[in-house]
Structure formats: C-alpha cells, structure tokens
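Q: Hi! First time doing this. I have a protein sequence and I read that you can turn it into a structure. Is that right? Here it is:
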Amino acid sequence: MKVLAIDIGSSKLTLGLFGAGGEELDKVSIALSADSTQRSIIRAINEGTAQMDLKDVASAGVTIPGLADTEKGIWVLATFTGIEDFPIVEELTKVLNIPVFLENDVNACALAEKRFGACKDIDNYIWITVGSGIGSSLVLEGCLYKGFSGHAGEIGHFTIEEADGYPCGCGNIGCLDAQAAGPAIARYYEGFTGNKIEGRTKEVGELARGGDRNAIAAFEKAGYYIGKALAYTVNIINPEAVIFGGGVMMDSELILPIIKQVYSKYSLTIANENLSIIKTILGYDATLLGAASVALIGIE
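A: Yes, that's right. Below is the predicted 3D structure, encoded as structure tokens:
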C-alpha cells in the first residue's frame, strides 16, 4: 500500500508517495506564485501527479497553511493569498478518484511526529512551525486537540508587540506571525543594515553563521518574541515536550538557544521543570510526512 502526500506551502507545492511505514517512494516539487488561486493550485497538483505513478495509491492527504474545516474538506482561509472557502477535498477527489483527507499543515506535522518522529511515546506536546509564518498544534492525552471550532493552537496570532508592531495578514498589528516568522527576520536585518535582501531569510542565516552581528541580532530578536509566546503557552498547557519545525528552524542553532533563554525567564519553570524543547527529527519534510500521516489515518 502507498499513499499520496500533498503539501501546499506559501511558495511551493510538494507531492510525495509514501509507504505505510513512512518510507519515501517518490517526490515532486512545483513553485507556486504569491497570488495562487484555487484554480492554479489544482492545476499545479495535476502537473505534479502527472509525473508520478499513482497505481495502488490508497488515499491522499493534503496539508494547507491557514484554517481548515477537516470535516467538510474546506480550506477556510489562507492569510497570505486570500484564498477562502475552497472545497479542496471535493475538487481533488474528482481529480484523483481516491479518498482525500485534509488537515492544517501544523496539525499534520504534530501527527507525523507522533507516528514517525520523536513523540511516539509522548502524549502531551506542542508542535510549533517557524517558516514563512508561525503556527502551532496541541496534542493532549495522545489526541490532536482542535478546540470548539477546529482552530486551536493559533500561537502565531498572539499579540506580542503593540508599540512597534507590524501589520499581520489576519488584520491585527504585532502578531507573533508578523514579528518573528522568516520575513520578519529578513526585515530586521534590512532595518539594522539598510541592505535589501528581498525577504530571503536563508541569506540572513548564512550571514549569521558567518559571524555577521546584525544577522545574529535579527535571529535573536525573533527568538525573543517566540520564547515569550512559548512561555505563555506552556504555562497554560503544561506539556512534556515542545517540538519546533519549519524552514527557519533548519537554522535552529541561531534561534533555539535564545528561545529557550527567554522561555525560562517568562515561564513558571517550577511547574514545567522537565519540559523538553527540541527541533523535529523529521527534518525539512515534516509537513509532507504529515500529509502522509493524514492519508494513512484517514483509511485506518
């Protein structure tokens, strides 16, 4: 048996074929434009699957950034493109002729960490992604906790900076998403130096690893905001572990130490003294493995 994993990101679509044990059988990536539409995303998925052998694929899992109604199969909202109320499961079922299951990308990462990663024996944890945006997912007593309307865990929309906050795609000012995600790190570096780098966080990471103090300071500023938000979240949830993933966390040595330092300052450490804060062991493809997990769970 194999399943199709579909990871829709802010700038890239990635498709993978996986076996039941999480072994990768094939992978295809396609660039997405910043103004992607429902039609262009379906077209990109068609382009990708045309390059793959879908024989014996039992199901597909699709992960999306933003809000998802998993019961109805609807992509409710993506703040970075303005996509709203997209019945993506219905559309993909027509295209693929197999069962299709939908999940928010960070929720899917949390499921993958439980199935394939560091949380196989952990039942209470938070999964946080830091990339082009920031999101989180809660696993409580071994189950994904979605909340009353299915959208629990939106740590990215904590208001973390009011005085000098940046506008967020959700319409508010100073959200963690706007203050500490990848684009914010690039923006801080540009502000410190006056050098335009066109929002390329990867370039700032390369400079920081080379000892550039302004680049290091940009990561530290983002880490400060994340650490503070993490402290508030941990104080409420009291998890056993916090798992970080996402593109920015591929440079975890630049930001995770400051996150831990600030977390320790603002958290009730005596109540959370055994908390483990680590980078995902699933690597850059955590979300794709999440989509595979969603596909597998859907048919179990």
